[in-house]
Amino acid sequence: MTSQVRLQSWVRRWMRSLDQPRLIAGIYDRLKSSINKKTNNPVVDQQITELLATYLPQKTYLEKRFSIAKLSYDLNISERVLSNYFNAHLETSFSSWKNKLRIQQAVKLIEESQLKHLTIEGVGEMVGFHSRTNFIEVFKEHVGKSPSEYLKG
Questions:
Q1: Whole-number Å distance between alpha carbons of 143 and 120
Q2: Could you read off the pLDDT tens digit of each residue along the chain, which spans 153 residues?
Q3: Counting Cβ atoms within 10 Å, is residue 59 exposed (0-12), middle (13-18) or buried (19+)?
Q4: Quick one: which of 88, 79, 82 has its CA closest to 38?
Q5: What is the longest distance spanned by two Cα atoms in the chain?
Q6: Main-chain dihedrals φ then ψ at residue 145, nearest 5 degrees
Q7: Could you count the other beta carbons within 10 Å of the beta carbon of residue 48?
Q8: Plot region of 138 (φ>0 → left; ψ -120 to 50 → alpha; else → beta)
């Protein structure tokens, strides 16, 4: 009998000796509880916060195709970990976080006097929104007024 066959035989006997249903249930329960935890590891949260602080000045969130996948790639962090960070640590979704940053930038653009000639569509496009309707809707949600009402003062 070769060493590989002996090893396979030993592994089969060992697997049969385990209380597999109980073992699997225990592993499942641990995974389920770690996934459903309301908070991340504070050290990981702090590291992500620091990474975002150095990443945000690049303003890549203004790109129309900015997504959690792009952010994940740029920061070299899994999408799952990032999503959990936004949901548990920041208590918001990635989309809401991204829209908040875009609207803050839109407000800055609207307030700058040299950009008064821009249309609402132009401002929305500059901050990464795909449509005028979506921009107005999200702007109103975050600021409490439509962009044109905001312009009037």
A1: 15
A2: 566 666 666 666 655 655 555 555 555 455 445 444 444 588 888 999 999 999 999 999 999 999 999 999 999 999 999 999 999 989 999 999 999 999 999 999 888 765 567 788 889 999 999 999 999 999 999 999 999 888 877
A3: middle
A4: 88
A5: 87
A6: -140, 160
A7: 21
A8: alpha
SS3 string, the chain, reads CCHHHHHHHHHHHHHHHCCHHHHHHHHHHHHHHHHHCCCCCHHHHHHHHHHHHHHHHHCHHHCCCCCHHHHHHHHCCCHHHHHHHHHHHCCCCHHHHHHHHHHHHHHHHHHCHHHCCCCHHHHHHHCCCCCHHHHHHHHHHHHCCCHHHHHHC
Residue 64 near residue 130 (C-beta atoms within 8 A):
yes
CB atoms within 10 A of CB 124: 25
